[in-house]
Amino acid sequence: LNKIAIVFILPLCLTALAGCARASTSQADNQQMAAEPHIIQSNIPGDLDTSLSKASENGLFIVTVSSQLDPVLINEIHTWLVTVATPQGEPVEEANLTLEHLMPQHGHGMPTEPGFTGYLGDGQYQLEGMKFNMPGWWMLDFTIQTPTQVDTVTFNLVLDS
Amino acid sequence: VFDLLVVMKIIKGLDIVFGTALILLLLSVLLPRPMQWASTWLLWQRASWRPAEELDLLSLSIERLPPLPPDPTNAYSTDARAAELGQRIFFDPRFSINGAVSCSSCHQPERMFTDGRQLAFGVRLHTLNTPTLLGSAYSPWQFHDGRADSQWAQVMMTMENELEHDGNRGLYAHLLAEFYGAEYEAVFGPLPDLSDPRHFPPHAGPVSDRRARQAWETMRPADQRTLTQIYVNLAKAVAAYQRQIIPGPSRFDLYLQALQEGEPAARRAALTPDEVAGARIFIGQGECILCHNGPLLTNFSFHNIASPGITLQQGRISAIEKLQRSEFTCLGPYSDAAGPADCAELRFMRTSGHEIEGALRTPTLRNLAHTAPYFHNGEFESLAQMLEFYNDPPPPPTGHSELRLLNLTPRQLQQLEAFLLALDSPLQVDPRLVQPLD
């Protein structure tokens, strides 16, 4: 009976071991793939609005941003253009613009203090000193102030490594 | 198998089904480690990187390092004769107050331009660890706190620092005239006659040494400017040499090349299973790539990681005022920059905010095996110690540390260390550049 038991159990165990190993590895493999989200893309809201032209919070302005470094790369200092128009499409000439910047997942902003350094006409404002030093989600909050109106607008940017 | 036979004996006489169940139970307890190994091995075999991960990996490739552009603040940055003069000075210990300390005393080529010491020792014991010069021409900022915005400004600060060379611009001008007059004049034009000590004292400069400082303060402004200009030229020559120190491909870069070209055998020859697992941690759970990004594995930016021994008032924040006051920046009178457009980094540098409190420059990770100890004060003797710190970082004294608990297992930490060691990147330079010239 013992011999029979061993003859039966041993192959059974080995088969089980092999099967188990295969199942577990592919499981571990898949788990690793699935359980570890991509670190740069993870926890970014799925419906994040990354459009580069939009109406400001209260609809007072249409704001369009464009980077002179296209596509935007990390670790490169460069210049942006911010174009401000009325909802009717008229350029906004005398706006005072400010920028706040933040990586919401890391609690810090850019390594630089970008500055608005000139008005180029046609509602276009030059923004120098833009630099992103990490891949991931960046928020750019602009405040647009004219002699009579003030409004804010937020742009989202997701950068590759 | 031996274990199984022992188990067989134990279950002798028991019901077959019950026995099998028992064995399977034992196996599942015994298995986790082999399972891990098998998993690591399988990932190595198949290189199962998702597209986003592959993008991350390739962003680290040395092939992505652009050719070094000329330094707009240094008109001599690509002048071969300037670089040769700079190399001679780099290895010449006469250029120090005691005639015993050269740049290469601390920046030793055989240690990838570091010194292997916890704290540097120039003329005196330093408070800081010697950073590597490797690839630093790509950085907009020099030193741990970035208090220089060019390599020539870095050289100037180092050679007059009382802990480092402890010299002064009077001394250096006389040494240049005595030993490298022809070489200097071939690049920078005629040296003035320095023989009258009433105009050009043997020791003079805005330094901590009392006698040299007093001599400096009694000099005519025009003579001061003459000495300063010679000193700036000397520094620009040394910078023209230093900027050539650039790393070449590591085994990791060969792996990436094989990955791109779809050559599994070359890929497996380049990195071991553990090193590949470490790369996965580097771009994943370890979050290393957030700051150690790009081909030099650094963003050359400043971060507060609650480094041991640092206070919030130290690091980057303490460099801002120095940069704003310095004559030797991109915007200063000794810069060769064409205009403010060349100086965006300085004009738009961060001057406030928690980002710069207690923040230090991210170092390159290439050649870590040769640049121990680690951190600005040489706190960690080994990579393993340093990784323990990152895995379970201390809370910052106050303020905002960018590190968070990683919870990597000891095995994962070993794999990460294995990966970091695979970043060993031999210098991509002419061998004559890493030794004193005849």
Keywords:
heterodimer, A: 161 residues, alpha+beta, five-stranded antiparallel β-sheet, three-stranded antiparallel β-sheet, 8 strands, 21% helix, 36% strand, B: 438 residues, mainly alpha, two-stranded antiparallel ribbon, 2 strands
Order of strands, widest sheet of chain A = 1-2-3-6-5
The proportion of strand residues of chain A reads 35-45%
Q: Which chain pair has the greatest contact?
A: A-B, 46 and 54 residues
Shape of chain A: globular
How widely separated are the two ends of chain B? 67 Å
**Sequence stretches where pLDDT stays below 50 over 5 or more residues of chain A:** 19-34
H and E string of chain A? HEEEEEEEE
Short summary:
Helices cover 21% and strands 36% of the residues of chain A. Chain A has one helix spanning 2-35, and strands at residues 53-55, 62-67, 78-85, 96-102, 115-121, 124-130, 136-145, 150-159. In chain A, the strands form two sheets. Chain A has a five-stranded antiparallel beta sheet, with no helix packed on it. In chain A, strands 4-7-8 form a three-stranded antiparallel beta sheet, with no helix packed on it.
What can you tell me about this protein's structure?
The complex is a heterodimer of chains A (161) and B (438). Chain A is an alpha+beta fold and 161 residues long. Chain A is built from one helix and eight strands. Chain B has 438 residues and is mostly helical. Chain B has a two-stranded antiparallel ribbon. In chain B, helix 7 (151-160) crosses helix 11 and helix 14 packs across helix 18. Classes of the chains: A alpha+beta (161), B mainly alpha (438). At the A-B interface, helix 1 of A face helix 2, helix 3, helix 4 and helix 16 of B.
